[in-house]
User: What shape does this take?
Amino acid sequence: MSSNKSFSNETSDRYARAIFELAKENKGLENIEKNIQDLLQVYNSNKGFEDFIKNPTQSFSTQQNVINKIAEKMNFLQIFKNFLSVLIVKRRIFFLKKIMISFLKISALARGELSAKLISSKNLSEIELQNISKELSKVLGSEINFDYKVDKELIGGFKMQIGSLMIDTSIKNKLKKYEQIMLEN
Assistant: This one.
């Protein structure tokens, strides 16, 4: 099971890197990124489209027709249309979401941006999020983009993950540590 997961991640990363390099070579990086963001939004908001993409029994021609119609309606660049066709022919279209997410991460890194996850126990205002981002950006020397969520179960504090660095100041985590200490004694 884990080998399939790493295979899918590795494959997705390779295809994402390929479209990134093609877009960069053809000076269409911003447009391809916009095309990918738009398609990812459709994918995430339309369960029928997601099911269609994940269904391995779809014929090449059906998949190609649907993707061509979407590409036409959304004004995708030709290079992106061709890339989607390659995914269909190579039977890799079911990796589409992972490829798009991987591409967006590669693009952000190329611009010097870092992605971070921030989970707090209470709603933070937009100003508070901007201040946190500014301070971290100064310290790390890169722009930080947050994937922000609220989790009331943290009781208080926050959790933040930047790459492999994890900071957990939540009361829930502190209570777990105290529980562990009490169980050990």
About this structure: The mean pLDDT is 89. Helices lie at 2-25, 29-45, 47-54, 60-73, 78-89, 96-110, 126-140, 171-184. The chain has two domains: 2-109, 113-184.
